[in-house]
Amino acid sequence: MILARELPKRTIALVLAGGRGSRLHELTDRRAKPAVYFGGKFRIIDFALSNCINSGIRRMAVLTQYKSHSLLRHLQRGWNFLRGEANEFIDLLPAQQRVDEAFWYRGTADAISQNIDILRAYGPEYILVLAGDHIYKQDYSLMLLDHVQSGAKCTVGCIEVPRMEATALGVMHVDEQRRITAFLEKPKDPPAIPGKPDKALGSMGIYVFGAEYLYQLLEDDMADEKSDHDFGKNVIPRVVKEGGALAHPLNMSSIPSGTRNRPYWRDVGTVDAFWAANLDLAADLPELNLYDRDWPIWTYQEQLPPAKFVPDERGLNGETANVLISGGCIVVGSNIRRAVLFSNVRVEASCTIHEAVIMPDTVIGRGSRLSKVVIDRGCRLPEGTVIGEDPEQDARRFHRTDTGVVLVTPEMLQKRVAA
């Protein structure tokens, strides 16, 4: 009998973390998407890595490429607690032109292909391929068990999403036995689930393979000069065509088990989605529970003093409601509603802040009024700054989405001062 707890020990997880995340605009000008801050004290990649640790998978490798310095620094500082003498590790595999000096990583499959010799040295029986840029909680050991018991050649994690949101995902059709019968990568007009015209079955970018089978697939893909060397475009469609791909819905393994009728998964790949997912955490009963001690999210964090609220010079304390506030923050007599304040944020007196995501080391000048904003790390907002009230003015100074979310970065503020 196969036990779910045994399979993680025979598995290595490969986290694909090289993407730029261009739909996040200036938020990824200085960092890769998996390194973007999320949820008050975390980085996006922490969720996939924490799922591995909590699932019993303690052999991981992170493949990086685009502007990876802050990501690598985060992993070195916050994820160095694994025991090498117990064969536990997180290996860092940046693009090195290891196979051909003419190419860096050309696609997700190529990134793994260029490290096949390293993978063989690890000696895994199964390989779990993960996207490093989604927010969710999942027990991968249950997905591994499903893969082994089904006899599939490849198992693909999937979830139902609003149909038009699936334009950024792989979309699949499945039969009654969950065999994948068709797979389209990022279709402009995603096909709907039969009987659910407003929903599509989207790929989560999670794949389970037998190791030797994956090595052969990748060697064949490398030999194909017409291939884009990408899992979604090339590798998975081939497995589907051969009849060896199984769909694994998130509701079979999401955490906690009580959420499986409505599993939580977010692709925070746009400014709007990123803003909304952060603010969801400030709700009275958020769908994603960060306070679950049975499935913690691990990360690196500075040793900071507790957050502090002090009155202004008139003795007024201000009010807060539905706000996440991290260590090192100081709030002086201001009103804050529905907001996420990351570490070391200072809010000066008489500010009004609503529906704001404010990243670390930011100072909000006295008397500022902010609404529906994402403030990048290290911003210094001058006294009396107003954002979120005049759409035309916001669009001239900053990046404003079609739904009215305003992204502010230090570079934008510097241009404003220079002008």
TrEMBL record:
Record-annotated site: Could play a key role in the communication between the regulatory and the substrate sites: 65, 104
PROSITE patterns to which the protein is assigned, alphabetical: ADP_GLC_PYROPHOSPH_1, ADP_GLC_PYROPHOSPH_2
The entry's keywords: ATP-binding, Carbohydrate metabolism, Glycogen biosynthesis, Glycogen metabolism, Nucleotide-binding, Nucleotidyltransferase, Transferase
Known partners and oligomeric status: Homotetramer.
Reaction(s) catalysed (UniProt annotation): alpha-D-glucose 1-phosphate + ATP + H(+) = ADP-alpha-D-glucose + diphosphate
Residues annotated as domain Glucose-1-phosphate adenylyltransferase/Bifunctional protein GlmU-like C-terminal hexapeptide: 305-408
Residues reported in the UniProt entry to bind alpha-D-glucose 1-phosphate: 105, 170, 185-186, 203
SUPFAM superfamilies: Nucleotide-diphospho-sugar transferases (SSF53448), Trimeric LpxA-like enzymes (SSF51161)
The keyword Electron transport appears for this protein: no
TM ranges: none
Protein name: Glucose-1-phosphate adenylyltransferase
Function: Involved in the biosynthesis of ADP-glucose, a building block required for the elongation reactions to produce glycogen. Catalyzes the reaction between ATP and alpha-D-glucose 1-phosphate (G1P) to produce pyrophosphate and ADP-Glc.
